[in-house]
TrEMBL record:
Originating species: Malaciobacter marinus
Protein name: Precorrin-2/cobalt-factor-2 C20-methyltransferase
Keywords carried by this UniProt record: Cobalamin biosynthesis
Pfam family, one: TP_methylase
Keyword match Nucleotidyltransferase: no
Family per record: Belongs to the precorrin methyltransferase family.
Biological pathway: Cofactor biosynthesis; adenosylcobalamin biosynthesis
InterPro entries in the record: 4pyrrol_Mease, 4pyrrol_Methylase_sf, 4pyrrole_Mease_sub1, CobI/CbiL, Uropor_MeTrfase_CS
Length: 219
């Protein structure tokens, strides 16, 4: 069994990644969230993106509707997980799709938390496929960088003032010590992502050995 959590990007179907497209083309069925209790996709941007991709690249897949009201309630996420589990009785390879990028305000990790607890085998064989974010797309639209040089940028929800936050540390110098990073709880070191010598460590390295290193201190 293989579960792919596929990010579709910011609304333009041409901004989907090649990896995401290949996952959709090779899977047996696609789970698509809908806010309509009758499982209608009439107003679903997610469905419209998938439909355009299927039309342009000439493939068809079984579509599994997943009623997903934006109530942030455990029972709603559990219902979606139950649909995924039931779908694996019929299919070997499933895609669950989400707008934007799965790492940013997405349902994906609510579902994965439950899946990890209730079926570790599916969780361990799940792949999360990242996508283009709305804010990176907006930046490109107006030809303005989100950060340049030694600047940084912050993502903040407007509805609350004090919130927990994840911190990404980038652009280190080789040889520098990392004691400046005061890790909160769940920090990872990433070296040479997608290149030779890629390494992902679930702790903060005390010294930067490679230029292509980043640290993420997760919420």
């Amino acid at each position: 069994m293989k579960l792919n959590m596929v990010s579709l990007g910011p609304g333009d179907y041409e901004l989907i990644t090649l990896k995401a497209l290949k996952a959709l083309q090779s899977c047996d069925a696609i789970c698509i969230p809908t806010k309509s209790a009758n499982n209608s996709f009439e107003k679903s941007m997610t469905y419209k993106i998938v439909k355009k991709l299927m039309d342009e690249f000439s493939f068809e897949k079984t579509i599994i509707p997943m009623y997903s009201p934006m109530r942030f309630k455990q029972e709603d996420w559990q219902r979606q997980v139950d649909i995924i589990f039931d779908s694996f009785k019929l299919y070997e390879d499933l895609c669950f799709v989400t707008l934007g990028d799965s790492a940013v305000y997405s349902t994906v990790y609510y579902l994965l938390d439950i899946i990890k607890e209730q079926n570790r085998a599916i969780y361990d064989n799940c792949e999360v496929i990242p996508g283009v974010t709305s804010f990176s797309h907006a930046s490109a639209k107006v030809k303005k960088p989100l950060c340049v040089g030694d600047s940084s940028f912050i993502i903040r929800p407007l509805h609350k003032r004090k919130v927990p936050f994840t911190t990404v540390y980038m652009r280190p110098k080789v040889g520098m010590q990392t004691d400046i990073i005061k890790d909160k709880k769940d920090i990872y070191t990433f070296e040479n992502l997608n290149y030779e010598g890629e390494e992902i460590l679930n702790y903060k390295k005390e010294r930067v050995d490679k230029y292509m290193t980043l640290f993420i201190d997760f919420v």
